[in-house]
Amino acid sequence: MPSEGLWRVEAIVEGHPVYIEASVPLSPRPEVFLCSFYFPAMSKGWNLRVAGGLDSVSLKNLAFIQAQAMDWWPGFGGGDVGAEPVARAEAGRERAAFYTGGVDSSYVLQHLHAQLGSAVFVEGFDIPLGDEERLRATRASLRATAAECGLKLLVVRTNLREHPVFKFANWETTHIAALASVAHALGRHFHTLYVAASDVPPPFGTAPDLDAAWSSASVSIENFSAELSRLERVRSIARWEPLRGRLRVCWENSSIELNCGFCEKCVRTRLQLLVSGAESGLDSFPKDQPLIPAMRRIVVDHALVGQWQQLVPLIEDRKLRRAVEKTMRRKNLPFFERAKRKTRRILVKLGL
Questions:
Q1: How many angstroms separate the CA atoms of 327 and 332, rounded?
Q2: Angle (deg, nearest 10), helices 103-112 and 132-148
Q3: How far apart are CA 19 and CA 324, in angstroms?
Q4: How many Å apart are CA 108 and CA 98, to the nearest integer?
Q5: What is the residue-averaged pLDDT of the chain?
Q6: At the N or C end, where does the chain have fewer CB atoms within 10 A?
Q7: In 3-30, which positions are buried (b, 16+ CB within 10 angstroms) versus exposed (e)?
């Protein structure tokens, strides 16, 4: 139903409301919130019952997702879904792509915009709903890039990340499933929605076959450009004019500026742009943030070391190259190894 000029689908999960809303009519399909809460349920070993039924494609795909999740993430269990098979839901007529202004989703827009009807941005995911100043600035930037591609920017709002049950599982695990929820809610308009391939290897919440498994018979979720490295994508968008002054990669920045310029992701992207011939960083980073001092504060995630290693032979400046090599030595252990070591320390303290 429309609410304050917006259309909304809403559910009550464990006593707490969750909603998705947009300026276009939405579809209350069972996949909308099943996708959102499937991994959080598995993190607790819960099974699910779908009263409205699911189409045969969704049922088959959930079996694959369940097996993949139990293989990748220790502690995940349950996940059996009881549902009667139902007929295929109405399919939309257009294609769209989720767009955040970052490298990967910009690559999607650069290469697929001629096939798309809209770019979709979800408020409440990487920027909280309450941060209206930053949301307003981001909307303006994304809308300008979309317009230069001949596309409309469709803004969707959701409180999903604030929901206590959704928080049972890590956002790194649930983010594509959350996008799939939005895709199904938009199923009356789009038969295919593209998600950008990640720069983080599995086990992660996204991979081409895992992303596709969130599809139903009428809504297809497609991972785009997984065959390319992030550096290859950066090289493609490095001189793409619709993105100049609008590339937004930083998730740590809390101001209205697009990027902080000194976090690991900002510095890595700036270096990738530098070796791609875009010394100015597409004019999207603060000009008062020198690269070498910024690297002194960075710890590289284990999963991203390969991207840093790829840069070394491409950097001509000797001081900058040495700074990159030194930065790579300050790397985090894999997540599960860190967790095991922390558990061992706690057990030793307890004398167990």
A1: 11
A2: 30
A3: 44
A4: 9
A5: 92
A6: C
A7: eeebbbbbbebeeeebbbbbeeebbbbb
Q: 290-297 long-range contacts, Cβ below 8 Å, gap at least 24?
A: 291/267, 291/320, 291/323, 292/319, 292/320, 292/323, 294/261, 294/262, 294/266, 294/267, 295/267, 295/323, 295/324, 295/326, 295/327, 296/323, 297/262
Both tokens assigned to 30: 């069972």
Residues 298, 301: Cα–Cα separation, whole Å: 9
Backbone angles phi, psi at 239, to 5 degrees: -120, 25
Residues 6 or more apart in contact with residue 30 via CB below 8 angstroms = 50, 51, 52, 53, 54, 83
The first and second tokens of residue 54, run together, are 């699911």
Q: pLDDT tens across 291-313, in order?
A: 999 999 899 998 899 999 999 99
Q: In residues, how long is the chain?
A: 352
| Cβ(190)–Cβ(164) below 8 Å | no
Instruction: Using alpha carbons, list the distances in angstroms from residue 282 to 101, 202, 279, 291, 293.
Output: 12, 30, 8, 15, 21
For 242-279, the pLDDT digits (tens) are 999 999 999 878 788 899 999 999 999 999 999 999 99
Q: Which residues contact 31 (CB under 8 A, 6 or more apart)?
A: 54, 58, 180, 181, 184, 216, 219
Determine the straight-line distance between the first and last CA of the chain, rounded to whole angstroms: 56
Q: Model's pTM, two decimal places?
A: 0.91
Order of strands across the sheet that contains 2-3: 2-3, 6-13, 16-22, 152-158, 118-123, 94-98, 190-196, 220-224
**Span 4-59, pLDDT tens digits:** 789 999 999 999 999 999 999 999 999 999 999 999 999 999 999 998 899 999 99
Residue 352 confidence (pLDDT) above 60: no
For residue 214, give the nearest of 38, 11, 91 by alpha carbon.
38
Which 8-state DSSP code applies to residue 334? P
